[in-house]
UniProtKB/TrEMBL annotation, chain A:
Segments forming domain B12-binding N-terminal: 1-90
Source species: Desulfoscipio geothermicus DSM 3669
Database matches in InterPro entries: Cbl-bd_cap (IPR003759), Cobalamin-bd (IPR006158), Cobalamin-bd_sf (IPR036724), Met_Synthase/Corrinoid (IPR050554), Meth_synthase_dom (IPR036594)
UniProt name for this protein: Methanogenic corrinoid protein MtbC1
GO-annotated molecular function: cobalamin binding; metal ion binding; methionine synthase activity
UniProtKB/TrEMBL annotation, chain B:
Highest rank taxon of the organism: Bacteria
Full protein name: Uroporphyrinogen decarboxylase (URO-D)
GO MF term set: uroporphyrinogen decarboxylase activity
Pfam families according to UniProt: URO-D
Residue intervals of the Uroporphyrinogen decarboxylase (URO-D) domain: 129-352
Lineage of the organism: Bacteria, Bacillati, Bacillota, Clostridia, Eubacteriales
Any GO BP: porphyrin-containing compound biosynthetic process
Length: 212, 384
């Protein structure tokens, strides 16, 4: 049986050969879905270590991006034993880079870290108009809307999006988090978001707090 | 001699003194504003003015008229026309008229060996057609597309350079050019144009030896790209730095630093100083920056100005640090106080010019009154 602590640590160390080696061996032994869920959980805890090391300035943005890739590779290996919908999602996030902004690195980091934390993320991509956010929120009924942007002009688009959600009568049904270089407490207030962050790991923690 | 010519001389002297290691009469000021900021400031349409570049003279003139700088405060060189003609994926205009650099993958991970064996051939044969969709076609159509794009490029740059010349004359700006050449650190080139942020961040873990070899292979091309037409100690090659702050120090030491150092040294040996935009926070790397050739210009975004002055201030030329975000959120007095604070730290001993920490890209990213007040304060008070 696979040592969960060793796996968690290997994910935290971003030691890809070790992680993938352990998972391949695990899958080859044809485990049950309960064991598989425990392994997914161990990987998720490894991602939490990655977040902590980022806060401690031992890891940097490049490492977070790699962590997302590592997790994707891990899930790919585990898919046959996890089963289709066996892992319960903790909540849904409709996510996008707002209108006028084409940057998606930060958004993608947040996406992979929140997926690692058990969220289902509906990624609308980049340069997303307010109307698209509204349509998707209507359709998906997520708990959370995440808006990302790098340019200062993104702040205007975030405000527009929140206003559009209000107009459509959807604002009260969701929590709104904004992320990216230009967001500040002041901007958050002006936009009418519920939370802001420039740190993806922190953003995930905020979202977890909302769906508890 | 006209007043404007005398002014230009005086301003040129301020920068020459900084470069020669003399104490200038006053801290020189060199700020710049983005083309988007300038267009919005002039109340023009963002898309129209970037396509119809003849409008830019009047637009840039308003920046020159209203914001103090000792060198020309506008410098646009990316125009949508030639990127559109190439079908560029690396520079794309968003729905509201801002040209941006999305993630691109010009080179696939399994193609590293091709690049390492012959970077130039690989760029021509594989990378350009992938980044520029109009070049992904048969040879003669490709040749036509490239010819059209270059025609547009030369037309646009010709127009821009004429405008810059006239504004330089009209406003008596100093005659030093910190954008006389342009290149990238080899690792940044591989990251930004070839593999993308995501690609490179996985490559340095999955295929580290190939990344190292590719960065080495790109270095001669980056050196060549950064050479200016004429060597001059008063002109510099602009190198905007990108990836280092987002890497672990040990990855920086292996993948980023050796070839970047080689680049700056090779340019310096050929008589071309480098003007670095030290993006984000480089405080972990100050001892490395110290090693670069004397008089390398370093404009910092974030970090500790005291530490930078102490470690680099006697050897290199420092600028930046003034937070554009404060121009948006602060009162006029707070903004001026911040300028004072930075001048007190960075001005002593010379080798410093005043600049913001980054170029304001939209009109609403600053309070215009604050920006003007700070520049006027420095121009009037930062005397030695």
């Amino acid at each position: 049986m696979l040592d969960m602590q060793v796996l968690t640590q290997a994910v935290g160390d971003l030691d890809e050969p070790k992680v993938l080696g352990m998972l391949k061996e695990f899958v080859a032994a044809n485990p049950g879905s309960e064991e598989a869920a425990a392994v997914v959980n161990a990987c998720q805890q490894g991602m939490a270590i990655v977040g902590d090391l980022f806060d401690a300035k031992e890891y940097f943005v490049g490492d977070l991006i790699f962590a997302g890739e590592l997790l994707n590779a891990a899930i790919d290996i585990l898919k046959p034993v996890i089963g289709g919908e066996s892992t319960a999602k903790v909540g849904k996030i409709v996510l996008g880079t707002v209108e006028g902004d084409l940057h998606d690195i930060g958004k993608n980091i947040f996406k992979s870290m929140s997926e690692a934390a058990g969220f289902e993320v509906i990624d609308l991509g980049i340069d997303v108009p307010a109307g698209t956010f509204v349509e998707k929120v209507k359709e998906i009924k997520p708990e959370i809307v995440g808006m990302s942007g790098v340019l200062t002009l993104a702040l205007d688009s975030m405000k527009k999006t929140v206003d559009a959600l209000k107009e459509a009568g959807l604002r009260d049904g969701v929590k709104v988090i904004i992320g990216g270089n230009p967001v500040t407490e002041e901007a958050c207030r002006a936009i009418g978001a519920d939370a802001f962050t420039t740190n993806a790991a922190e953003g995930v923690k905020i979202c977890q707090g909302w769906v508890k | 001699m006209t007043d404007v010519m005398a002014l230009a001389r005086e301003r040129t002297q301020l920068f020459r003194d900084v470069i020669d290691g003399n104490i200038p009469k006053r801290v020189p000021i060199f700020v710049s504003f983005s083309i988007e900021f300038a267009i919005q400031y002039a109340g023009k349409n963002l898309m129209e003015a970037q396509w119809d570049t003849g409008q830019l003279e009047e637009i840039f003139d308003q920046i020159c008229r209203d914001f103090y700088s000792d060198l020309l405060p506008v410098n646009a060189f990316r125009f949508p026309s030639f990127y559109r003609l190439l079908g560029a994926r690396n520079f794309v205009m968003s729905s509201n008229g801002f040209l941006q650099h999305p993630e691109v993958e010009g080179l696939l991970q399994e193609e590293y060996d091709d690049f390492i064996a012959s970077p130039y051939n690989c760029i021509i044969e594989k990378i350009l057609p992938r980044i520029y969709t109009e070049l992904d076609t048969d040879a003669s159509t490709k040749a036509l597309a490239l010819a059209k794009a270059f025609k547009a490029f030369h037309d646009e740059m010709g127009t821009a350079i004429m405008i810059y010349g006239r504004l330089n004359q009209k406003y008596g700006y100093g005659d030093v050019n910190f954008f006389a050449g342009f290149t990238e650190a080899p690792f940044d080139f591989i990251s930004d144009q070839l593999r993308g942020f995501k690609g490179i961040s996985t490559d340095i873990r999955r295929v580290p030896d190939k990344v190292e070899a590719a960065v080495e292979a790109a270095t001669p091309l980056m050196i060549k790209a950064g050479m200016q037409p004429f060597p001059s100690k008063y002109n510099a090659t602009f190198i905007p730095l990108h990836m280092a702050p987002f890497m672990r120090t040990k990855d920086f030491e292996r993948f980023y630093w050796p070839t970047f150092k080689k680049l700056v040294e090779a340019l310096a040996e050929a008589g071309h100083p480098s003007n670095l935009f030290v993006e984000h926070d480089w405080m972990r790397y100050l001892d490395y920056l110290y090693e670069l050739p004397e008089n390398t210009i370093m404009r910092f975004e974030y970090g500790d100005p005291k530490l930078v002055k102490e470690k680099l201030g006697k050897k290199h030329i420092i600028a930046g640090f003034y937070p554009v975000s404060l121009l948006k959120t602060g009162t006029k007095q707070q903004c001026i106080d911040k300028a004072k604070e930075l001048l007190d730290i960075l001005a002593p001993g010379g080798r410093y010019y005043f600049d913001f920490d980054k170029v304001p890209i939209t009109l609403d990213s600053v309070n215009v009154e604050n920006a003007r007040a700070v520049l006027e304060y420095v121009a009037a008070n930062a005397n030695y």
